[in-house]
Structure of diphosphomevalonate decarboxylase:
Amino acid sequence: MNNTQTTAHTNIALIKYWGKKDSQLRLPYNDSLSLTLDGYYTTTSTKFIDQADDQIWLNQKPAPLAFATRVQHFLDYVRQLNHSKQAILVQTDNHVPTAAGLASSASGFAALAGSLNYLFQMHLDLKTLSILARHGSGSATRSIFGGFVRWYHGHDDQSSFAEEIDGADQMPLRIISVVFSDQPKKISSTKGMQQAVSTSPFYRTWPTTVQQDLTAMLQAIKQRDLEQIGLIAQNNALAMHALNWTARPAFSYFTMDTIHLLTSLNELRQKGYLAYATIDAGPNVKVLTSTSDAAFVQQYLYQNYPQATTTFLKPGPGIKKTVL
């Protein structure tokens, strides 16, 4: 196959993972659960080229060194699996604010893994493709699938994979992304995880907290209970960020805007609107709401946070390919 293009959507973790027990294999300490989003995605095409070196492009420009290096390592891994030394052209269009706490690496490496799967004609099923994507980015293992997705932390390479647990097609759940900053994080997710794991005195209780939240979340999804889905997701996100606040030295991804928005959402809930937050490694907030409340909540956010970029999102699909 000469040229293959794959599109993968980003995801938000409603039950977080924060910390890796194996950094090389990207094995987390605990399971996580995410929701794939329709509006943020990455499209990647790959093809073999008759050159000495790989060519890596991001948004129609030569990729920045850090991004190119990470992609290069992934290409080397896939080539090793396929006993190949052939150079590859990678062309990626990223429709996600990069490195701003919006899981751009999730959609990015899921799309790259998918395209390479077809390029090398590996014929991987989705479970095995999620294992492959994990070698590029931990959260990419979840972006192979649509809807609600569970990532099993596992104990080795083959036991750490994701699977779709509910397509969320008929779920009246909507997400409003509130982006206060699209600038790269001052502390990378990898560095933040390492610091929290090694220095927070509360990290030892984190896996137990996650397991309890995960069990409750699976039940809430099964019952289509949006209120519980939102409440559990927000509590879990704040518990994750509490690990950073109790690290030595303490650090935070929050800004004053983040904190102010959390207070505003509490006021909205007191007025009867469904509005809960989940926050990854960054200052930006994803607001979980219902189809019936979404218009009011979005207008409220637009009026009260004019400095932010708000995007209306729905549950999104799994990875798709286009043959060019």
